[in-house]
Structures are given as C-alpha cells and as structure tokens.
Write a structure and sequence with these properties.
Belongs to the iron/ascorbate-dependent oxidoreductase family. GA3OX subfamily. Pfam families: 2OG-FeII_Oxy, DIOX_N. GO terms for molecular function: gibberellin 3-beta-dioxygenase activity; metal ion binding. InterPro entries: DIOX_N (IPR026992), IPNS-like_FE2OG_OXY (IPR044861), IPNS-like_sf (IPR027443), Iron_ascorbate_oxido_reductase (IPR050231), Oxoglu/Fe-dep_dioxygenase_dom (IPR005123). The protein is α+β, with helices and mostly antiparallel strands. The protein has 10 helices and 15 strands. β2, α2 and β3 form a beta-alpha-beta unit. The protein is globular, with a radius of gyration of 19 Å. The chain binds 2-oxoglutaric acid (AKG) and fe (ii) ion. The site of fe (ii) ion has 4 residues, from loops.
Amino acid sequence: MTTLSETYRNHPITDHHIIPLDFDSLDEVPESHSWPQFDEHLNKIQTHDLKDSLIPVIDLASPNARNLIGQACETWGMFQVINHGVPSELVKKVEYESRRLFALPTHEKCKVLRSADGATGYGSARISPFFDKCMWHEGFTIMGSCVDDAKVLWPDDYQAFCDTMDAYQRHMKLLSHSLLLIILETLDVTQEELNWALSTQDSQGALQLNSYPRCPNPSLAMGLAPHTDSLLLTLLNQSGLSGLEIFVEGSGWCRVQPIEDAFVVNVGDLLHIFSNAKFPVLSHRALVNQSKHRISVAYFHGPPIVSRVAPSSRFQKPCFRSLLVKEYLILKAKHFSRALSLIRT
Ligand SMILES: O=C(O)CCC(=O)C(=O)O
Ligand SMILES: [Fe+2]
C-alpha cells in the first residue's frame, strides 16, 4: 500500500453513501438532507450573528510574509494568500471546467462514479458515512491524470479538462511546497525533517472539486459537514462565492469571506501532529446558497504515504505518538474526528 488511492481501497464505504441527489430536480429539501436546527454539537446549521473571521490575508510577495505565515499558523492554523504566482486565468479555467462537469446530467456523471473502494471520480463527500443526514454536495476527486474519467464524460472533448486539471495540480504542488518550506522554517526543524515534508518524490496530492448546487432552503441544508483536513496542508479556492466557515472557540462558526485571487491555506491533521499541536487544526464546514451554485476547489498536499509522522524532534514532550502516514489515514477513515485523540500520548 503506497498511495492514497490504495489506502482508500482497503477501507470501502457503502454505495448508498456515494451517489449524490439530482439536486436541480428538487424544489424542497428532502428529509434525508434536512439537518437538525438546534443540535447541541458542532453540526448545528443556525448561525445567528454570523461573524466574518479575522484570519489574516498574506501577500506572499511582501518582505514580512514569512513572519506573518508563522504567526497565522500558530494563531489560527489558517490564512489566505495573495500574490502567490498561480495565474488567475488558470484558476478561472479550473472553475469553468468544474462547472462544465457538474452541469452534466446525473446519469452522465454517474458513469464515473467513485467505486465503494475507490479514491477518484464523482460522488458524495468521503465523510458522508459519519453523519446521519446527507450533504447538499457533489464532488469529483482527481489524483494525477484524470484522462480515463474525462474520456468517459466527453469522448470527443476531454483534452481541455485534463490539461487544465494537470496544470493546476502542478501549480498547487509547487505552491504547497513553497508554503510548507516557509512554515517548517518557522518551526526550526532539522534538514531530515524538512526532506520528509518536502520530498517531491512520492508526495501525495489530491484535487477535490466541490459543487454546492442552489438550494431551495439553505437554512436546512449542510454543504459539507464539519471536519478537519487529513494531510499536511490544504489550498482552497472558493471561486468568489462565500460558504466556507470555521469554528472558532468562543465565537462559534465564522465565515471566511472569499478574496479575489486568494487561496485559503489551512493546516491539516498531519501538520498539526508534526507541530506537536503548536499549529491548531481548524474544524470547518461549507454552507449553501439559495440563488447561486457554488464551486470550490481544494488541493490536499501530503508526505509520502509510507513515511512516518510524529511531532518534530525539536519538541521535547511529544503529545502524539509516531505512526505511519497510512496508519493515520486508516484511523481517520475509521474514526473520523476521533482519530487525533486516539494517537495522543
Ligand atoms: O467548499 C469549501 O469551502 C470547503 C471545502 C473543504 O473543506 C474540503 O474540500 O475539504
Ligand atoms: Fe476541508
């Protein structure tokens, strides 16, 4: 087992958790997608006096970027980055191609349905089995080449989709590397540890296209339920429409407003472990919209799956035990939000 796909292959989820609804055909939110309004726990939808979050916006070209990134990781585990060098035409093309995919009729999209033990293709969120209610969401996951699926969807017109997604993954990988390097330098880690986190060979990346169709009653629906991302770092493009919210202790759910040409960068579980919890990992969710179909594009970046993850050796009192990256992903696939507490020392 050496890849993310293989890890998921060994942890199948049931078929009924994979097939999204034909959302456009609905004029009300069905019971299956109607979330409790006053749940005591994190799943509550109602956001009275929703605040905008104060997570910092960092200009990567500014001389102070490094300090600001280090501070943002410690304070929030999240920041937005501008002037990152990814061409905005490419980002727009990714949104255009994603919309082209999700606009296909359901029976077409289901031709590339992710299998129960698969990692890539069309389907509901992987976290679906952990919730009683279904999400107002459909997704498409890409790891490397997406040519097989794209040929099924558009036998005579798949090239633009593939070229766009390939180019975007290359840019995301480079940007993730530069950001990780900056972040790890602020932690003062050893060269060996830097090599681990930055190894381009066998590093894992996954591109997740998220679609949140228009919803007749957004106050009942959940786009993507609260979760933390599992790998080291996530780079998210909100395509200009708000929906992303973070859970801030003492404040509750706060919206992360989209900023033109910015990526939201957040610490994932593996970086939280490596930083010995110095960098928090934020629970986040996505809500939906009554009049607009929202697209978001997440790139998840991780180290080689067969490598070990543990708190950096610079921490004298590690608060997590060491384990293989793939072992952690298996724990997460089985226990979801309890995975981190299961490896606490
Ligand atoms: O759509 C969003 O804003 C959030 C997406 C997300 O959290 C994810 O794909 O892991
Ligand atoms: Fe996420």
